[in-house]
Known about the structure:
By secondary structure, this protein is of the alpha+beta class. 26% of the residues lie in helices and 31% in strands.
Amino acid sequence: MTPSPPLPSRLLNSPQVLWQAPFQEVVAAQAGQQLSGPWRLLLLGDGSPTRHLQLLSGLAVDVELIAMEAVPLAGPEAPAEVAELAPPLLRRQVWLCCGTECLAWAESWWNQEQAERHLGQRHQPIWHSLTANRAELYREVDGLAQVAAPWLEQRFGQSGPFWSRHYRFFRSGKELTVIREVFSPQLERWLGPSRPGAADHSRTDASPGDRSGSQHNDLQTL
């Protein structure tokens, strides 16, 4: 009997990294000097992003699962820290939405055994899953970047590039997962422009071309 062909992956290709802060600057809390204070706290602080989104919007965060699939190895698009996870790996991608607005996209890599232990509720934010029993966790922010992808522009309704970060969760000194997040410019409604003096990209009266050109100029000065 001929085996059935494998089902096509529903995972999205990771966004293209256009710029990335040096690792040493990120871990020393020296990266992101070009960011405004609120955006720097969001991207480089060790707080829960789902908690931040809920506090900013006043709405509960809905997790829209894109895919959660086994992957043999971390691809070249994965953060370097994923190589520290013991295979076999599982990769998970979600949209984070508040009301009718999608405010962030996230992907994470896990050892499959750890994923089965901690991701029983697949539509629940990772932070809730990991702290269900008030277990102590340590979050280390390892990367700050600007990224782009057509599907991000389509879902966010904004032209890129977009601010992104990645970090790891540790428990008892052991790495649990690596998480990458990308945030929508719509957050400027509450946080203000990501760069002091820059235009507010949460405005919907500016044409896509105008927003794209402004953000492109911002990227050139990083």
